[in-house]
Amino acid sequence: GSPRRLLLVSNSTLHGGGYLGHCQQHIQSFLGQKVKRVLFIPYALHDRDAYARTAREKFESLGYGLDSIHESCDPVEAVRKSEAIFIGGGNTFRLLKALYDNSLIHEIRKRVLEDGIPYMGSSAGTNVATISINTTNDMPIVYPPSLQALGLVPFNINPHYLDPDVKSTHMGETREERIRQYHEEPKTPPVLGLREGAMLLVEGDKATLQGVTGARLFLRGKKPTEHEPGTDFSFLLIDSNP
Length: 242
Fold this sequence. Notes:
This is dipeptidase E. The chain has helices spanning 24-31, 48-61, 75-81, 92-101, 105-114, 124-127, 175-183; strands at residues 5-9, 37-41, 65-68, 85-87, 119-122, 156-158, 191-194, 198-203, 206-211, 215-218, 225-227. By secondary structure, it is of the alpha/beta class. It has a single domain, classed as Rossmann fold, CATH 3.40.50. β8 (198-203) and β9 (206-211) form a beta hairpin.
Protein backbone atom coordinates (compact mmCIF):
# COMPACT_ATOMS: atom_id res chain seq x y z
CA GLY A 1 0.00 0.00 0.00
CA SER A 2 0.89 3.66 -0.34
CA PRO A 3 2.58 5.44 2.59
CA ARG A 4 0.77 8.68 1.74
CA ARG A 5 -0.81 10.70 4.53
CA LEU A 6 -3.00 13.63 3.50
CA LEU A 7 -5.32 16.03 5.29
CA LEU A 8 -7.28 17.88 2.62
CA VAL A 9 -9.34 20.69 4.15
CA SER A 10 -12.05 22.60 2.28
CA ASN A 11 -11.40 26.00 3.87
CA SER A 12 -8.94 27.76 6.17
CA THR A 13 -11.49 29.76 8.16
CA LEU A 14 -14.98 28.71 9.21
CA HIS A 15 -17.59 31.35 10.06
CA GLY A 16 -17.27 32.35 13.71
CA GLY A 17 -13.74 31.00 14.16
CA GLY A 18 -10.13 32.01 13.54
CA TYR A 19 -7.54 30.78 11.02
CA LEU A 20 -7.59 26.94 10.94
CA GLY A 21 -9.54 27.01 14.21
CA HIS A 22 -12.20 24.53 13.07
CA CYS A 23 -9.61 21.88 12.18
CA GLN A 24 -6.81 22.47 14.68
CA GLN A 25 -7.53 19.25 16.59
CA HIS A 26 -7.47 17.34 13.29
CA ILE A 27 -4.11 18.97 12.48
CA GLN A 28 -2.59 17.93 15.82
CA SER A 29 -3.91 14.41 15.48
CA PHE A 30 -2.65 14.26 11.88
CA LEU A 31 0.87 15.61 12.48
CA GLY A 32 1.26 13.94 15.86
CA GLN A 33 4.36 14.08 18.07
CA LYS A 34 7.02 13.11 15.53
CA VAL A 35 6.72 16.20 13.35
CA LYS A 36 8.57 19.17 14.85
CA ARG A 37 8.54 21.60 11.90
CA VAL A 38 6.17 22.16 9.01
CA LEU A 39 7.17 23.54 5.61
CA PHE A 40 4.56 26.11 4.57
CA ILE A 41 3.97 26.97 0.91
CA PRO A 42 2.28 30.41 0.67
CA TYR A 43 2.35 30.74 -3.13
CA ALA A 44 -1.45 31.09 -3.47
CA LEU A 45 -1.42 34.62 -2.02
CA HIS A 46 0.48 37.69 -3.22
CA ASP A 47 1.71 38.85 0.21
CA ARG A 48 3.71 35.81 1.19
CA ASP A 49 5.33 37.43 4.23
CA ALA A 50 2.00 38.27 5.84
CA TYR A 51 0.62 34.83 4.96
CA ALA A 52 3.62 33.10 6.53
CA ARG A 53 3.20 35.16 9.70
CA THR A 54 -0.43 34.07 10.02
CA ALA A 55 0.41 30.41 9.46
CA ARG A 56 3.46 30.51 11.75
CA GLU A 57 1.44 32.00 14.60
CA LYS A 58 -1.18 29.25 14.28
CA PHE A 59 1.21 26.33 14.00
CA GLU A 60 3.41 27.58 16.84
CA SER A 61 0.30 27.78 19.03
CA LEU A 62 -0.24 24.08 18.24
CA GLY A 63 3.36 23.22 19.15
CA TYR A 64 4.98 23.10 15.70
CA GLY A 65 7.72 25.21 14.16
CA LEU A 66 6.99 26.58 10.69
CA ASP A 67 9.35 27.42 7.83
CA SER A 68 7.96 29.23 4.80
CA ILE A 69 9.36 28.03 1.48
CA HIS A 70 9.47 31.57 0.05
CA GLU A 71 12.15 32.43 2.63
CA SER A 72 14.38 29.62 1.37
CA CYS A 73 17.05 30.29 -1.27
CA ASP A 74 16.52 26.74 -2.60
CA PRO A 75 12.84 25.70 -2.59
CA VAL A 76 13.59 22.21 -3.96
CA GLU A 77 16.06 21.54 -1.15
CA ALA A 78 13.52 22.86 1.37
CA VAL A 79 11.01 20.25 0.17
CA ARG A 80 13.65 17.51 0.28
CA LYS A 81 14.45 18.30 3.91
CA SER A 82 10.87 18.85 5.07
CA GLU A 83 9.17 16.77 7.76
CA ALA A 84 5.66 17.82 6.70
CA ILE A 85 4.17 20.13 4.06
CA PHE A 86 1.25 22.53 4.36
CA ILE A 87 -0.05 24.40 1.30
CA GLY A 88 -2.51 27.16 2.12
CA GLY A 89 -5.42 28.65 0.22
CA GLY A 90 -5.70 31.59 -2.14
CA ASN A 91 -5.72 31.56 -5.94
CA THR A 92 -5.23 28.05 -7.30
CA PHE A 93 -3.83 29.20 -10.67
CA ARG A 94 -1.23 31.41 -8.99
CA LEU A 95 -0.30 28.55 -6.66
CA LEU A 96 0.07 25.91 -9.37
CA LYS A 97 2.10 28.23 -11.60
CA ALA A 98 4.54 28.91 -8.73
CA LEU A 99 4.86 25.17 -8.02
CA TYR A 100 5.81 24.62 -11.67
CA ASP A 101 8.07 27.70 -11.79
CA ASN A 102 10.00 26.43 -8.77
CA SER A 103 10.23 22.82 -10.08
CA LEU A 104 8.34 21.48 -7.06
CA ILE A 105 5.70 19.20 -8.59
CA HIS A 106 7.96 16.14 -8.82
CA GLU A 107 9.69 16.84 -5.49
CA ILE A 108 6.47 17.16 -3.48
CA ARG A 109 5.01 14.03 -5.12
CA LYS A 110 8.13 12.07 -4.22
CA ARG A 111 8.23 13.25 -0.60
CA VAL A 112 4.54 12.48 -0.06
CA LEU A 113 3.95 9.36 -2.15
CA GLU A 114 7.34 7.66 -1.69
CA ASP A 115 8.75 9.02 1.58
CA GLY A 116 5.37 9.27 3.31
CA ILE A 117 5.72 12.72 4.88
CA PRO A 118 2.38 14.28 5.92
CA TYR A 119 0.77 16.68 3.42
CA MET A 120 -1.90 19.13 4.48
CA GLY A 121 -3.78 21.40 2.11
CA SER A 122 -6.58 23.89 2.59
CA SER A 123 -8.71 25.27 -0.24
CA ALA A 124 -6.24 25.91 -3.13
CA GLY A 125 -3.75 23.64 -1.34
CA THR A 126 -6.39 20.90 -1.47
CA ASN A 127 -7.08 21.59 -5.14
CA VAL A 128 -3.44 21.10 -6.15
CA ALA A 129 -3.24 17.80 -4.23
CA THR A 130 -5.64 16.24 -6.76
CA ILE A 131 -5.27 15.22 -10.41
CA SER A 132 -5.95 18.68 -11.78
CA ILE A 133 -7.27 22.12 -10.92
CA ASN A 134 -10.09 21.83 -13.50
CA THR A 135 -12.71 22.03 -10.75
CA THR A 136 -11.39 25.02 -8.80
CA ASN A 137 -13.68 28.00 -8.21
CA ASP A 138 -10.87 30.49 -8.87
CA MET A 139 -10.29 32.89 -11.74
CA PRO A 140 -7.32 32.11 -14.02
CA ILE A 141 -5.40 35.26 -13.09
CA VAL A 142 -2.13 33.71 -14.29
CA TYR A 143 -1.40 30.90 -16.70
CA PRO A 144 0.30 27.77 -15.32
CA PRO A 145 2.02 25.55 -17.91
CA SER A 146 -0.55 22.82 -17.21
CA LEU A 147 -3.75 22.28 -15.27
CA GLN A 148 -2.34 18.95 -14.11
CA ALA A 149 -1.57 19.14 -10.40
CA LEU A 150 0.30 17.02 -7.83
CA GLY A 151 -1.87 13.92 -8.33
CA LEU A 152 -1.60 12.75 -4.72
CA VAL A 153 -5.11 11.31 -5.18
CA PRO A 154 -6.64 10.08 -8.49
CA PHE A 155 -9.74 12.31 -8.41
CA ASN A 156 -10.65 15.98 -8.16
CA ILE A 157 -12.02 18.02 -5.29
CA ASN A 158 -14.20 21.13 -5.32
CA PRO A 159 -13.45 22.97 -2.05
CA HIS A 160 -16.00 25.45 -0.62
CA TYR A 161 -18.74 23.42 -2.31
CA LEU A 162 -22.00 25.41 -2.26
CA ASP A 163 -25.52 24.09 -2.49
CA PRO A 164 -28.02 26.16 -4.49
CA ASP A 165 -29.86 28.75 -2.37
CA VAL A 166 -33.55 28.01 -2.92
CA LYS A 167 -34.46 31.59 -1.99
CA SER A 168 -32.00 33.17 -4.40
CA THR A 169 -33.10 34.83 -7.64
CA HIS A 170 -29.60 34.35 -9.12
CA MET A 171 -29.96 32.66 -12.49
CA GLY A 172 -26.30 31.79 -13.07
CA GLU A 173 -25.01 28.24 -13.05
CA THR A 174 -24.92 26.39 -9.75
CA ARG A 175 -21.76 24.62 -8.60
CA GLU A 176 -23.45 21.32 -9.39
CA GLU A 177 -24.17 22.40 -12.97
CA ARG A 178 -20.54 23.45 -13.47
CA ILE A 179 -19.25 20.11 -12.23
CA ARG A 180 -21.74 18.35 -14.50
CA GLN A 181 -20.33 20.35 -17.45
CA TYR A 182 -16.86 19.14 -16.48
CA HIS A 183 -18.14 15.56 -16.54
CA GLU A 184 -19.53 16.06 -20.05
CA GLU A 185 -15.91 15.85 -21.16
CA PRO A 186 -14.60 12.30 -21.72
CA LYS A 187 -12.52 10.42 -19.14
CA THR A 188 -13.05 12.95 -16.36
CA PRO A 189 -12.44 11.62 -12.83
CA PRO A 190 -14.80 11.79 -9.84
CA VAL A 191 -15.23 15.17 -8.15
CA LEU A 192 -15.73 15.39 -4.40
CA GLY A 193 -17.56 18.58 -3.41
CA LEU A 194 -16.24 19.43 0.08
CA ARG A 195 -18.50 21.86 1.92
CA GLU A 196 -16.91 24.41 4.23
CA GLY A 197 -16.08 22.67 7.49
CA ALA A 198 -15.38 19.34 5.77
CA MET A 199 -12.03 17.63 5.18
CA LEU A 200 -10.75 14.37 3.76
CA LEU A 201 -8.20 12.30 5.70
CA VAL A 202 -6.16 9.93 3.53
CA GLU A 203 -3.97 7.34 5.22
CA GLY A 204 -2.38 4.98 2.72
CA ASP A 205 -5.26 3.40 0.80
CA LYS A 206 -7.96 4.59 3.20
CA ALA A 207 -9.88 7.86 2.81
CA THR A 208 -12.38 9.14 5.38
CA LEU A 209 -14.61 12.21 5.36
CA GLN A 210 -14.13 14.27 8.53
CA GLY A 211 -15.31 17.60 9.90
CA VAL A 212 -18.70 19.06 10.73
CA THR A 213 -20.36 19.17 7.31
CA GLY A 214 -20.97 16.63 4.57
CA ALA A 215 -19.77 16.25 1.01
CA ARG A 216 -21.39 15.71 -2.37
CA LEU A 217 -19.85 13.17 -4.71
CA PHE A 218 -20.05 13.52 -8.48
CA LEU A 219 -19.30 10.55 -10.74
CA ARG A 220 -19.39 10.94 -14.50
CA GLY A 221 -22.72 9.77 -15.93
CA LYS A 222 -24.33 9.23 -12.50
CA LYS A 223 -26.54 11.21 -10.15
CA PRO A 224 -24.61 13.02 -7.40
CA THR A 225 -24.76 11.46 -3.95
CA GLU A 226 -24.78 12.97 -0.47
CA HIS A 227 -22.35 11.83 2.25
CA GLU A 228 -22.00 12.49 5.99
CA PRO A 229 -18.80 12.83 8.06
CA GLY A 230 -17.36 9.39 8.73
CA THR A 231 -18.01 8.18 5.16
CA ASP A 232 -15.36 5.80 3.83
CA PHE A 233 -14.20 7.16 0.46
CA SER A 234 -11.38 4.63 0.00
CA PHE A 235 -12.91 3.47 -3.29
CA LEU A 236 -12.01 6.86 -4.80
CA LEU A 237 -8.32 6.03 -4.36
CA ILE A 238 -8.57 3.28 -6.95
CA ASP A 239 -7.43 4.98 -10.15
CA SER A 240 -10.01 4.20 -12.82
CA ASN A 241 -11.54 6.54 -15.38
CA PRO A 242 -15.19 5.76 -16.17
